Amino acid sequence: MIKILVVTRDYLKLQRIVMAKLYNLLPHGAEKDDAIASLDKHPTNPSKWVGVKKVSSEGFILKLDLAWNQLTGAIPGELGQLTGLEYLSLSNNQLTGEIPPELIREGLTVFR
Question: What is the DSSP letter of 99?
């Protein structure tokens, strides 16, 4: 049996919501504005979103790198909803707390 995975419109919306939550950890200013604008400018193309480094041919975010971006606050557990995510780098920011349990899964490498 061949399994075909396709990103649905609902999953694209979910990815945008999760990324917006993450972008809200950026300090106020041009970088935050640019990150949020990338979601609005390219709503169906995650490869154009700030920090997204790799997307599957089906549209799943695979690699996300927001290291050195002055992120502050707790890592959103909602990142665990990015089910295709294989690599997440949030290092060298001012994040607080532990890595959420939603992000502790086989096949996902997290750098904090």
Answer: P
Distances (CA, A) of 8 to 15, 31, 89: 11, 29, 26
Q: Is the pTM of this model over 0.85?
A: yes
Quick one: angle between helices 30-41 and 9-23, nearest 10?
180
Both tokens assigned to 55:
């997307």
Name 95's bridge partners: 73
Q: Where are the domains of the chain?
A: 9-111
For the record, the structure tokens of 85 come out as 């995510």
- What token pair was written down for 66? 């927001």
Distance separating alpha carbons of residues 96 and 7, to the nearest angstrom:
32
pLDDT, tens digit, 9 for 90 and up, residues 43-81? 999 999 999 999 998 899 999 999 999 999 999 999 999
Superfamily for 9-111? Answer: Ribonuclease Inhibitor (3.80.10.10)
Q: Could you give the CA distance from residue 88 to residue 9 in angstroms, rounded to a whole number?
A: 23
Q: What's phi and psi for 95, nearest 5 deg?
A: -80, 150
